[in-house]
Amino acid sequence: MLPIVFLASLCLKAASAWPLFPGPHSGQPHGPGGRALYIQDNDPAGNNTIAAQISNDDGKLSNPVKIPTGGKGLARLIAASQDSVVVSGDYVFAVNAGDDTLSVFKIDPNQPTNLQLLGKPASTKGHTPVSVTYSEALNIACALNAGDEPGVACFALDQQHGLKPLPFFLDIAEIVPSPPPGPLVIAADIRFNPSSTALFVTVTGGGALLGDVYSWPIHFGKFSNNPNNNTLEGITLPFSLNFLGSDSKLFLTNPHLNSDGAALLDIATSGEVAHVQNVTIPGQVASCWATYDPTIDSVFVIDAGRPVITIVDADSGKVTSQYNYTTSVSGTGGQDTKVDRNFLYVLTVPVDGDLELVTPPQVLVYDVSPLQSGATPREVQSFDILQIVGKLPGATGLAIYPAARFT
Question: What are the contacts of 382-388 at 24+ separation with CB within 8 A?
Answer without folding.
Answer: 383/52, 383/60, 383/61, 384/360, 385/39, 385/50, 385/52, 385/64, 385/360, 385/361, 386/360, 386/361, 387/360, 388/64
